[in-house]
Amino acid sequence: MPNTQENLSQVATLAGGCFWCVESDLAKLPGVVRVVSGYTGGTEPQPDYERVSSGRTGHYEAVQVFFDPRRISYRQVLDVFLRHIDPTDPGGQFADRGRQYRPAVFYHTEAQKREAEAALAGLTASGTFDEPLAVAVLPFAFFQDAEDYHQNYAKTHKLQYETYRRFSGRDRFLEQVWGPKAQPAATSGTSGDWRRFAKPDAATLRQRLAPLAYDVTQKEKTEPPFENAYWDSKAEGLYVDVVSGEPLFSSRDKFDSGTGWPSFTKPLVPENIVTREDKRFFSTRTEVRSRHGDSHLGHVFTDGPPPSGLRYCMNSAALRFVPKDDLESAGYGEFGKDFL
């Protein structure tokens, strides 16, 4: 029966060809609670694998992705999904041909519909593909869990899955488009695609970001001291731009400044930091912004500890924390060596 236990505001229903592969790829995302393979989009009231595989039921092989919105957004799930399929193929996916393998996003709310349309528009604008995108955006109506042996297939049938995946052509296509070892994590606010990030318009950002994050990053507001997410955090990992996902600071350079805001002695990736003179509020300070996201992050002062003598005083609302154990799966594996 359709799963009704999770809040629909925290589920994405996506079709991208073989559900074994889509399930396996999206289950790796930090913030994803679980992924279920199944059938959706057709009229057959009791679909099963045999009938759906015939292509006559109208159903798609699909997955439902249940996620924690405090750690990953719907848009971020979408962006990763689109980078793990061929979004230009209307006749199936890779070796799997037929109506049941077409790519689609099934939205549960009007907000999800807008996010899906924005994600596709952003991918089109990126110029990554010469052909038009063929991912349908359709209203969600029904989802039937697939048979038990299809669930978590990549682990329960490891050899069969790896053999299928190797010869399906999926990974070869992804490598050709996105480069070797293309395992992007959630983009547009996470990792993987921050070097390609194109800032969306204000309306999209306002919808995507929490109100405080929008006010801080886009309106240069300042959050309250001692009442923010990271001011006293000692967890190991990276701090990235909440808008673009570009890596900014490491926990290894974080210190307790006594100010009530997260403070760092230096940036992790200096080229991702932009500074400029700020003469607001009857004083002259040095504002810190992100290069790719153009987000207001905070200010840098010269009263920090040695050896730099600098204090990068940041707003937690402008940052997203990636724990060290999640760096590889989140697309920041290149920084993992810093925590060995």
Automatic annotation (TrEMBL):
<dbReference type="InterPro" id="IPR002579">
    <property type="entry name" value="Met_Sox_Rdtase_MsrB_dom"/>
</dbReference>
<keyword id="KW-0560">Oxidoreductase</keyword>
<protein>
    <recommendedName>
        <fullName>Peptide methionine sulfoxide reductase MsrA</fullName>
        <ecNumber>1.8.4.11</ecNumber>
    </recommendedName>
</protein>
<feature type="active site">
    <location>
        <position position="18"/>
    </location>
</feature>
<feature type="domain" description="MsrB">
    <location>
        <begin position="202"/>
        <end position="324"/>
    </location>
</feature>
<comment type="similarity">
    <text>In the N-terminal section; belongs to the MsrA Met sulfoxide reductase family.</text>
</comment>
<dbReference type="InterPro" id="IPR011057">
    <property type="entry name" value="Mss4-like_sf"/>
</dbReference>
<dbReference type="GO" id="GO:0033744">
    <property type="term" value="F:L-methionine:thioredoxin-disulfide S-oxidoreductase activity"/>
</dbReference>
<dbReference type="InterPro" id="IPR036509">
    <property type="entry name" value="Met_Sox_Rdtase_MsrA_sf"/>
</dbReference>
<comment type="similarity">
    <text>Belongs to the MsrA Met sulfoxide reductase family.</text>
</comment>
<dbReference type="InterPro" id="IPR002569">
    <property type="entry name" value="Met_Sox_Rdtase_MsrA_dom"/>
</dbReference>
<comment type="function">
    <text>Has an important function as a repair enzyme for proteins that have been inactivated by oxidation. Catalyzes the reversible oxidation-reduction of methionine sulfoxide in proteins to methionine.</text>
</comment>
<dbReference type="Pfam" id="PF01625">
    <property type="entry name" value="PMSR"/>
</dbReference>
<dbReference type="GO" id="GO:0008113">
    <property type="term" value="F:peptide-methionine (S)-S-oxide reductase activity"/>
</dbReference>
<dbReference type="GO" id="GO:0030091">
    <property type="term" value="P:protein repair"/>
</dbReference>
<dbReference type="Pfam" id="PF01641">
    <property type="entry name" value="SelR"/>
</dbReference>
<dbReference type="GO" id="GO:0005737">
    <property type="term" value="C:cytoplasm"/>
</dbReference>
<keyword id="KW-0511">Multifunctional enzyme</keyword>
<dbReference type="InterPro" id="IPR028427">
    <property type="entry name" value="Met_Sox_Rdtase_MsrB"/>
</dbReference>
<dbReference type="GO" id="GO:0006979">
    <property type="term" value="P:response to oxidative stress"/>
</dbReference>
<dbReference type="GO" id="GO:0033743">
    <property type="term" value="F:peptide-methionine (R)-S-oxide reductase activity"/>
</dbReference>
